[in-house]
Amino acid sequence: MAQPGSTTITEGEGRKHPDGTTRRDFLYLSAGAFAGTGAALTGWAFIHSMNPAADVLALASTEVNLAPIAVGQAITVTWRGKPVFVRHRTAEEIAKAKEDDKADLRDPQTDARRVQKPEWLVLVGVCTHLGCVPLGQKPTDAKGDYGGWFCPCHGSHYDTSGRIRRGPAPLNLAVPSYAFTNDTSIRIG
């Protein structure tokens, strides 16, 4: 016979606490919490493994000091494994680029759309035909018929704004995303 206030145990029911829960309920909740935590940690580790490595992040942007680049001079820097041409244009190159805005262009873009400051031209130095690197960065390089760059592999000619003027290249030299961090430096990427 059962005492008042005690819980009776019937066959197959297990021990019950006064609030009606069993030990099995606790085990289910504990196992579910551990499984949920394990799944969340596994998911986080999987997603985190898709983030770029530190060496890739280091290449994501490049700082360029413009102070030592004289008017008329061009330098080549590497960004994301590609050459980037930075040219400090002369007044004549700027005037020629603006004059060429009215020319019949295969890939029409005005010079103003391609530069942030007229004296600085920043381009990805990869020919849009087959990925060659055009000549025109060194003073002794052939600059093509339009005074910009020339790709000797297939004969593409670019003007002083990097726009395709003649040859098989279908598009202008690309302008990477860049920003002036101050008057004498830019961040590419």
Describe the model.
By secondary structure, the chain is an alpha+beta fold. The protein folds into 2 domains: about 15-50, no CATH class; about 55-189, Rieske [2Fe-2S] iron-sulphur domain (Rieske Iron-sulfur Protein). About 25% of the residues lie in helices and about 25% in strands. It is built from 4 helices and 9 strands; from the N terminus they run ααβββααββββββ. The protein has helices at about 25-50, 55-60, 90-100, 110-115; strands at about 60-65, 75-80, 80-90, 120-125, 145-150, 155-160, 165, 180, 185-189. The strands form 3 sheets. The chain has a 3-stranded antiparallel β-sheet, with no helix packed on it. A hairpin with a 4-residue loop joins strand 6 (about 155-160) and strand 7. The longest helix has 27 residues, at about 25-50. The protein starts with about 20 loop residues before the first helix and ends with a strand. The mean pLDDT is about 85.
Structural class: alpha+beta
User: Which strand-content bin applies to the residues?
Assistant: 15-25%
**Shape field:** elongated
Write down the Rg: 33 Å
On the 0-100 scale, what is the average pLDDT? 85
User: Uncertain runs with pLDDT below 50, 5 residues or more?
Assistant: none
The count of helical stretches stands at 4
Order of helices and strands: HHEEEHHEEEEEE
- By CATH, the superfamily of the largest domain comes out as Rieske [2Fe-2S] iron-sulphur domain
Largest sheet: 3 strands, antiparallel
Q: Which oligomerization state do the chains in this entry correspond to?
A: single chain
CATH class category label of the largest domain: Mainly Beta
Helix content percent band: 10-25%
Tally of distinct domains: 2
